[in-house]
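FAQ: What does a ligand-bound record look like?

Like this one, built around octanoyl-coenzyme A:
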Amino acid sequence: ENVVISGVGLWTPQHVITNEELVASYNAYADKYNEENAADIEAGTLTAKPHSSAEFIEKASGIKQRYIYCKEGALDVNRMRPDIAERGDDELSQQAEIALEAAKKALAAANKSPEDIDAVIVSCAYTQRSYPAIAIEVQNQLGIKGFGFDMLVACSAATFGMHRAWEMVASGNARAVLVINPELVSPQVNYTDRDSHFIFGDVATATVLESAETATSAHQFEILSTKAVTQFSNNIRSNFGYMSRATDADPYGEDKLFHQAGRKVFKEVCPMAASHIEDHLTKHDLKPENVRRWWLHQANINMNLLIAKRLLGRDATADEAPIVLDRYANTASAGSVIAFALHHQDLSAGDVGVLCSFGAGYSIGSLVIKKR
Ligand code: CO8
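The answer part, i.e. the structure of the complex:
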């Protein structure tokens, strides 16, 4: 059975943090930290916190700003993390709230109503609780029958989620599947660490995958095939988890937040991603020059430029490989889906595109798709 992506939805938080705001807050925090710990820094038992810079951030990453679900607290030098009120069991969870925003947009774009959907997958880098699944909460809110589940694949959560939806529809086990990526990552960002404080932003994306036979939307992309690979690496890691209570580990320890060896990631992931994409295209007797659009993972502009250059043998234009991380920063698994959401309506029937994620795990996931 031919499967299409028949709709995509993008929810963007209303709060923005510019590089300048972020750096002013971090530098004030660093000054305070250095002053309070002057004796230990002088004695050499503690390292002084160096200043961050907006110029460095833009040059090293291409990021100019990021969106955040709750700005309150994140820039407060006495807090340095968002200040989000806990909700009761009878209230909608924050992650389900943003998932619903994107899901409704995807359903509208796909021209589908909840009765048409047989499964809901919430796939992202973190879920705010273990159970009941956020997907089941969303399913309940929308009044969808069938089933829902959560899955975590860090950077490749969105593509791997779409892979599972493709399998469900292709096998005839579901008519249509809603895949949602509520990337509410700001609570996991260490705003006191200059190496990583600038990297991430919050967003939610969603897609509807269904049989080509039932699709009626204006913009449909047939999935020619999917391809995934994982290879274990500690270079991007978060040790946050349910075991902390038993191990007596500090639940707020720095290793419980996102941390990485960014240089190593860059060196190792770029060649992996380029050869993965090349192999995937070869399966369809396609060459990189046959690809009209590249919706690539959005972690770092230099990574995308390098991967596109390896594939094409020249620089890709912004029209060929759109960049959204200047506005959105790295949004974990949602980056390639944001690029798709903002840059797909201009393609013509028969145009081929590649949607590809790469990052933590390591994990790489791609879909070769064709405009109908
Ligand atoms: N301001 C000023 N200077 C800085 C700053 C800063 N903010 N940060 C670092 N520097 C300094 C460094 O200390 C270093 O100084 P020195 O040379 O004296 O040691 C110098 O600047 C250069 O630093 P780097 O070598 O680290 O700089 P790079 O040019 O390599 O850029 C990057 C750093 C941007 C991190 C780059 O290496 C990169 O992007 N790598 C790839 C990273 C990547 O893709 N990671 C994947 C992220 S994970 C993901 O996508 C999803 C995970 C799950 C979600 C998590 C949500 C929280």
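Follow-up question: can I read anything off the structure? Yes, for example: The pocket of octanoyl-coenzyme A is lined by residues 52-53, 56-57, 60-61, 125, 154-155, 185, 188-189, 194-195, 198, 200, 236, 258, 260, 262-263, 265-266, 299-300, 303, 330, 332, 359-360 (CB under 6 Å).
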